Amino acid sequence: MNDVSRISRRIALCSVMETIVHCAPISRASIAKQTGLSKQTISEIARQLEEEGWIRETGRTSGHVGRTAVTYDIVPDRAVIAAVDLGGTKVRAAIADLSCQVLSDVEEPTDKRGGHHVVAQIARLCRQAAAQEGLDFSKVRLAVIGVPGAPESATGRVLMAPNIPGWDSIDVTAALSQELGVESIVENDVNLAARGEHWIGAGADCDDLVLIALGTGIGGGVMVGGELVRGVSNAAGELGFLPFGSDPFEPQSLHMGALERSLGSEGIAERYKELSGRTADVKAIFDAAADGDKEATKTLDETARLLARAVASVAAITNPAKVILSGSIGVRSELVERVHALLPLCFPRPVSVEASALGSKGALIGAAAVGLASLHAALWTAGMQGATIALPSAAIMRERGVAA
Amino acid sequence: MNDVSRISRRIALCSVMETIVHCAPISRASIAKQTGLSKQTISEIARQLEEEGWIRETGRTSGHVGRTAVTYDIVPDRAVIAAVDLGGTKVRAAIADLSCQVLSDVEEPTDKRGGHHVVAQIARLCRQAAAQEGLDFSKVRLAVIGVPGAPESATGRVLMAPNIPGWDSIDVTAALSQELGVESIVENDVNLAARGEHWIGAGADCDDLVLIALGTGIGGGVMVGGELVRGVSNAAGELGFLPFGSDPFEPQSLHMGALERSLGSEGIAERYKELSGRTADVKAIFDAAADGDKEATKTLDETARLLARAVASVAAITNPAKVILSGSIGVRSELVERVHALLPLCFPRPVSVEASALGSKGALIGAAAVGLASLHAALWTAGMQGATIALPSAAIMRERGVAA
DNA sequence: GATTTGTTCGTCCACGGAACGAATTAAATC
DNA sequence: GATTTAATTCGTTCCGTGGACGAACAAATC
């Protein structure tokens, strides 16, 4: 027997697993109803899954007419993944299990020495996170690492990550895989944040969205049809290089993009200085504006105009249902509200603009989402073209008490 | 037997059809080798396909050791589709058959009365194209119509199509389906052009590309991972609304986008007038520049700078492997070369920029591509998630003598 | 004779449906 | 209130069928 004839079992198995992940605990009869497969097919598959340790009996139904049913549940720690959010100042790691719970979040300041030190730090944090849940690290099958910068898939290097010295010259993916002993996926952190919001955050209700992260710099995560857009060199969503805000043809705009120069935190501070003559960091400018400082208010207005233009740009190109603002600066309601007011003045179509729901956990949750989807795919769909096991919906996750 | 158990046959059938479409004429033994299915499975399926009239014997192999093989081929006119490119000034229609040949291109000036008159005209042209190939119109299964504007899938109206009066208030899709008696798909013409270039044009070697059409106005077709990006309201690629070029917050920018106002043909002519005081249309400006007119040259420089910024914008957001310039103005080498020179000055990553290979036939070929893919899907994949029959590659099509 | 094509035959996987026993609740009767 | 009966649901066994594969073999050609 070759590929094709076993494929129906594969499909059946996937749809059973998906149903259990979504609806556990659930009886075999219910699975049969949901999947449309016959009861004895379900029984066969359930027997196999139980033998292999993926699921187990957890109880029985009661209280309604008819025979009680045995209910099955995922064995959550049969396989887990590690999710990591590497920032310029701190690293966070978490473990996510097969039932899609995100567990044991640990955190540390980023090792300033960069290079292999950070690789080792990540590996240590992952082990620590696993240990904290009482899990043997061998249960970890995959690590997803969100990084600020553009991972280059061919070489494993991470380009444009100024806060992590040395990562543009070592094969980070290989080093991490080696250090952890499992496959690792390195992905841009803003992309992951978008994936996170799409799973259980502000974008859970739409498959076409863009997340704009505004902090020290500006970045974007683009999703089309529920899939992340990575681009040919993992550089999609580099909104900092949108050619307006400052003169895009000035040579410096090749290093720090035209928009980033005027919309990044430095640019905002500079604008305030130009208007008022005073030096202040972004937080101080927000405070000053709240206290009625004219120039600070003007600075925020100007900033929001640029942000609105950035939103208009992505809306013009990918026409998303929603644009999510995130990052320490992007989530400020002063900005979000200004964008609400300004966007209709420069873009004719309605675009829903919202602040991030997951905040600083976005990238970590996104890493979990990517990792779990990838794990499911590796374990069960096994190369079936187009077949995927959807993650449980935001509604289900809320029900299970996973707060954002 | 229900869905699941028949699925392996479905998959086998799809992969046999794909192989025949790609490699016809081909023997059953070769199909078996290519698909990995066993010889007798292929024989069974071939028998069924022949009975249903999809394929037929066309010859026998000879000249090599061993028994001669019977070769099979698609019955090309067993089912065909109609492809239509509706422009503001003319309508073109073509028939494309199952073997993916695009036949019998007919053309007419667009009926200026708009509305149902244009619907009727399209239907007539489609019938005419079929008749020209000696095909009974009942062979046509599907029509794909490229239109300038944004089709609204919910209502079937076509928004923002100023040259076709009335189409923003009638259900065009339904009217066409009714008039033709077959399902019809209405799609933005620039999107289709992108799809066409991706199939057998300048973008045949990459799955992430953006086509920018520069003519009277400016539009974009975005492909990510080999799929068209339509956006939540079919308005992806509305590059005219990129917020630079003119002041995006001027109220008029809500009607004609900021970039379109300065990069559309009117904007170019206006720029020339401002610089030189002379009135000229775009073609005359190109001619004047060729004759050494300083202001005309300056106008083109300015235009190319804006175009380069538009390219930079899409490159920053979706990071395509290639940007294809098309449209009567966009393909001019004077512009393409200037963009080649200017883009590296305002965008740090390499992006391949090329002129369209299909020219004015792009949308028509794209419509054929969309239609054929959809027809294949309807006939054989029949709702199998993720399964697709790929169109024959550009190389195969070239071999068959389909010139761009 | 070597090689390739295409058919026939037997086998095996996998799904579905019917029938049935088991387990439980709801209703009816004593 | 206790007991019997009906209804319902769960899960298994058994059998039929679709469909793929491999082996063997006939046919056709160099």
Structure classification of chain A: alpha/beta
Let me know the average pLDDT of chain A.
93
Q: Would you state the CATH class of the largest domain in chain A?
A: Alpha Beta
The largest interface is:
A-B, 65 and 66 residues
Mind telling me the CATH superfamily name of the largest domain in chain A? ATPase, nucleotide binding domain
Number of strands of chain A: 15
Q: Helix segment count of chain A?
A: 14
SSE topology string of chain A: HEHHEEEEEHEEEHEHEEEHHHHEHHEHH
Oligomeric state of shown chains: homodimer
Q: Biggest sheet of chain A, strands in spatial order?
A: 6-5-4-7-10
Q: Strand fraction band of chain A? A: 15-25%
The tally of domains of chain A stands at 3
Q: Gap between N and C termini of chain A, in Å?
A: 47 Å
Shape of chain A: globular
Low-confidence stretches of chain A: none
- Considering DSSP H and I runs of 4 or more, what fraction of the residues of chain A is helical? 40-55%
Give the biggest sheet of chain A.
5 strands, mixed
Using the CA coordinates, give the radius of gyration of chain A: 23 Å
CATH fold-type name of the largest domain in chain A: Nucleotidyltransferase, domain 5
Overall CATH architecture of the largest domain in chain A: 2-Layer Sandwich
Pfam families (chains A, B): HTH_24, ROK
Protein name (chains A, B): ROK family transcriptional regulator
Family (chains A, B): Belongs to the ROK (NagC/XylR) family.
